[in-house]
Write a structure and sequence with these properties.
The chain has 162 residues and is of the alpha+beta class. It is built from 5 helices and 5 strands, in the order E-H-H-E-E-H-E-E-H-H. It has one domain. Strand 2 (47-54) and strand 3 (58-66) form a beta hairpin. 15% of the residues are buried.
Length: 162
């Protein structure tokens, strides 16, 4: 299923509003760094598109890479040796076009720009919680309580005319 730009914006907003999720991402990145993952080609280029999702024993995160910059699978093997689960998937990112002329709008008469399908790799990493230091027991349900019902990003996305 193609990745919508609105989904990534909402995910980034959720992360920025929760200090617990930000701390988890910092710890997640620390583990990747200590494993030497960034020495492998293109691993540093990843962009978070989904997560982190917390369960009882796992932290799951999805990273997006341009199709021509697939991260070196040898780095994924290093994660697998540390009991992580790594999967690679080809997908598309729906990138809204920059509006410079009327032809850049969708044909149905809306004020929404056309979208371009950009080929990407999605790398899903499921890491055992034992490697990540978490100050409090935080679950996805807890993070939903911190999320306002209507975010600024939602307002901008859902009501572009305003």
């Amino acid at each position: 299923m193609p990745i919508q730009s609105t989904d990534t914006v909402k995910n980034h907003y959720k992360i920025s509003k929760s200090t617990g999720l930000t701390d988890i991402l910092i710890e997640f990145e620390r583990v990747l760094d200590e494993l030497g993952l960034y020495t492998y080609q293109n691993w540093i280029e990843g962009e978070i598109v989904e997560g982190p999702h917390l369960s009882r024993y796992w932290i799951e995160l999805s990273l997006m890479y341009p199709r021509e910059k697939m991260p070196d699978p040898t780095g994924g093997m290093r994660l697998i040796k540390k009991d992580c689960k790594v999967s690679y998937q080809k997908d598309y990112y729906l990138d809204p076009r920059r509006v410079e002329e009327p032809a850049d709008y969708q044909e149905n008469g809306s004020k929404k720009p056309k979208v371009d399908k950009v080929p990407v790799w999605i790398v899903n990493i499921k890491m055992p919680k034992k490697y990540v230091t978490i100050d409090s027991e935080l679950t996805d349900d807890d993070t939903e309580d911190n999320k306002p019902t209507q975010t600024v990003a939602d307002t901008m996305i859902n009501n572009p005319e305003q």
